[in-house]
Amino acid sequence: MVKSIAEKHGLRATFMPKPFINLTGSGCHVHASLWSTKTKKNVFDDRKGELGLSRTAYHFVGGVMHSRRLCVRSQIRR
User: Fold this and answer.
1) Each residue of 17-70: pLDDT tens digit?
2) Does residue 18 contact residue 26 with C-beta atoms inside 8 Å?
3) How far apart (Å, rounded) are the C-alpha atoms in residues 63 and 41?
4) Residue 59's pLDDT is what?
């Protein structure tokens, strides 16, 4: 909805962090967690893992970063 309204006013709405170097923007960040319905625990948490993160957390972050690259590439090609 935000993008549609922006386009109607000749503007562009994006939720990518700092999409234009010459314009101010937010340093987009997200607080995310994934909880197991069985154990009721955060599956991103692993006290023994590097930085306290589980393998699932690293896979999640890797997927998000991969998706962001795809979005950037599709914008560049236009």
Assistant:
1) 666 677 766 656 667 889 999 999 999 999 998 889 898 988 888 776 655 555
2) yes
3) 21
4) 86
Q: How far apart are CA 55 and CA 17, in angstroms?
A: 25
Give the number of residues written for the chain: 78
Cα→Cα distances 8→2, 11, 14, 23, 25, Å: 10, 7, 14, 21, 21
8 A C-beta contact, residue 25 and residue 19: yes
What does the pLDDT read at residue 78?
A: 47
- Phi and psi at residue 2, to the nearest 5°: -60, -45
Separation in Å, CA 13 to CA 22, 54, 72, 76: 16, 34, 14, 16
Contacts 24+ apart (CB under 8 A), 62-68: 68/16
